[in-house]
Amino acid sequence: MQDFLDNFANWESLLRVYPLLLQGLIYTVCLAVVALPLGILAGLAIAVLYSFKNRWVNISLLIYIDLFRSFPVVVLLILIFYGMPFLGLTLGSFTAAVLAIVLNNSGYYGEIFRAGILSVPHGQTEAARALGFKPLHVVFSIVLPQAIRNVLAPLASNSLELVKATPIAALVALPELLRSARVAQEQTYNPTPLMAAAVIFFVILYPFARWVARLERQALKAR
Known about the structure:
Layout: H1 2-8, H2 11-51, H3 55-70, H4 73-83, H5 93-119, H6 122-130, H7 135-150, H8 152-164, H9 177-188, H10 192-222
């Protein structure tokens, strides 16, 4: 037991490197706070455009969704960060990580929102148009509020997965929580910082995970 505490719960090592972990936590939170709303907005835009049922627009959107969902987000980040400079565009680590996460998740969000829109009875749309509502007014005032309520559980679940994907930024030397913990481990020659990073992720994400599970149970009961 003492060996375990010395290696994975060494308070002396933790006190030496906690500023590094705090810095990493700040970067992780910033990455999630920026990428999450951008991913949701991009997915919402995809679903709204798809709802207008323009053949060529829909084909383009399906290609976009399939393309970026087919790439693992890690591969996408590597292509963006190391490949785009050959095209004359160099992005910083933070920007590249946000872009990779948003591109990958926007397709999933788009499909979730699209399913929500399709779940709204078409008769409501026809009735609104018969009353003189403009297409955008119909979508944003009548369809989307119901659609979001119908797919709140998968939206929350995908958001949780997005936040869990933020450690990929370590691959491009962004000092988020995982990379900071690894640097701290190298400085202390002790895995305690990695254990601390795992505990921090758990403390932050566990309440969110429980909320997602509650939403999923409510969605099952409502069926």
